[in-house]
Specification:
195 residues, alpha+beta, SHC Adaptor Protein, four-stranded antiparallel sheet, three-stranded antiparallel sheet, 3 helices
Length: 195
């Protein structure tokens, strides 16, 4: 059976079109474009909430999202903070604020009672990303809240989070050898303990 080059090209073009339509329907870019007015309002609300930085992305939520707008604010150290807003440009999640964190280099393994942390009066406009440890007063408060929630143990790691349901994560090693992660909101209230 002889297949002509024209038939092969037509079949390839048809397969490409079907693939493009399938990908567009299943997982294409659902984010709608923002008007310049909505982008300005969302950006202003996010920057006001975070307390500084630069807007590096802004998008309108789609039907699957719990927010009307999401704005990514990048701080001078490269940390990204995602701020979710409703249709009135009010913040709906609890992302970190720039003032929640200290400026010094991140702690890699804080103790349960951090004595080597920077002074409590050292907040700055730099927030850590998910992999940077908490410092200063934030470290002290987050560690205390996590240890109170677990009843005992040793804090082995801390970090910020841009998840919608919590701002801080504190890993605690229990005397039994079990590692747990205590998730806290921006007021250091426990939102969950992951075992």
């Amino acid at each position: 059976m002889n297949i002509s080059p024209v038939t092969t090209r037509c079949a390839a073009m048809g397969a490409t079109a079907v693939l493009a339509l399938t990908l567009g329907a299943c997982g294409g870019d659902d984010d709608e474009k923002l008007s310049s007015s909505d982008r300005d309002k969302a950006s202003s609300a996010a920057l006001t909430y975070v307390g500084g930085g630069a807007v590096t992305d802004a998008e309108r939520g789609d039907g699957d999202d719990t927010y009307a707008f999401q704005v990514e604010v990048t701080l001078p150290n490269g940390t990204d903070i995602d701020v979710e807003l409703d249709d009135k440009f009010d913040v709906t999640n609890s992302p970190a604020k720039a003032s929640d964190f200290a400026t010094d280099a991140p702690a890699t393994a804080p103790s349960a009672t951090p004595t080597d942390a920077p002074s409590a009066g050292a907040p700055s406009a730099v927030a850590p990303d998910d992999d940077r440890g908490l410092l200063g007063e934030t470290l002290t408060k987050a560690s205390a809240a996590a240890l109170k929630a677990t009843g005992e143990g040793e804090v082995t790691e801390t970090s910020g989070s841009d998840d919608a349901d919590h701002v801080y994560e504190v890993d605690v090693l229990l005397p039994s050898g079990e590692d747990v992660t205590v998730e806290l909101d921006r007021n250091f209230k426990v939102t969950s303990i992951d075992r």
